[in-house]
Amino acid sequence: MSMVGIIMGSDSDLPVMKEACQVLEQFGVKYEVTICSAHRVPSETSRYAREAIDKGMEVIIAGAGGAAHLPGVIAANTVLPVIGVPIKTASLSGLDSLYSIVQMPRGIPVATVAIDGAANAALLAVQIMAVADNDLRHKFTTYKGEMARNVMAKNSRLQELGIGEYLKLKQEQ
Ligand code: RP5
């Protein structure tokens, strides 16, 4: 059964990475969640990546913070596409994580989303899997259509009510 592998460097990343799980559930995509640090358990991390294909994984989402080597190490040990999620940090607000993940050297790419962008990582994983899955592509098309309709409905309401009334009603919600 095809699925997404979600891996993170620490349980402190879980509150952010949980958002990826929620998005995948919304699309009915199977996933497996793992804590495995590139620095603290390097052998287990490379084994996870080497065994990913045999487990049925098609995309791996890897979240890490600080000197965030996890997505790169995973990418080095598999041919599956890897999406990196830079986790926000206390000291450098996640810029350290972002640069560590996005600045992969030539040859081993990691698709990098925004700091704490776990939801977008899951959406990208769905899009990748949808290339070969018509049902998933249909779900993604529906999702985008609903999002567009929501924006247009908000705009119509704004034009109808004006800024003051719109904000008043929004605050009451
Ligand atoms: C990284 O170090 C993890 O991905 C986490 O974001 C960061 C801090 O880990 P903890 O000290 O909270 O376990 O490997």
Q: How do the helices and strands line up, and which of them pair or pack?
A:
Layout: E1 3-8, H1 14-26, E2 31-35, H2 42-51, E3 57-65, H3 70-76, E4 82-87, H4 95-102, E5 111-112, H5 118-130, H6 134-161, H7 163-172
Parallel strand pairs: 1-2, 1-3, 3-4, 4-5
Helix pairs in contact: 1-5, 2-3, 5-6, 6-7
The structure holds 5-O-phosphono-beta-D-ribofuranose (RP5).
Q: Describe it for me?
A:
The chain has 2 domains: 3-132, Rossmann fold; 137-172. The protein is built from 7 helices and 5 strands. The longest helix is centred in the C-terminal third of the chain and has 28 residues, at 134-161. The chain is α/β, with parallel strands linked by helices. 51% of the residues lie in helices and 16% in strands. It has a 5-stranded parallel sheet with strand order 2-1-3-4-5, with helices on both faces. The chain binds 5-O-phosphono-beta-D-ribofuranose.
- Terminus-to-terminus distance: 41 Å
The 3D shape can be described as globular
What profile does the largest beta sheet have?
5 strands, parallel
Task: Note poorly predicted spans.
Answer: none
The CATH topology of the largest domain corresponds to: Rossmann fold
Would you state the CATH class of the largest domain? Answer: Alpha Beta
The rounded Rg comes to 18 Å
CATH architecture title of the largest domain: 3-Layer(aba) Sandwich
User: What's the SSE pattern?
Assistant: EHEHEHEHEHHH
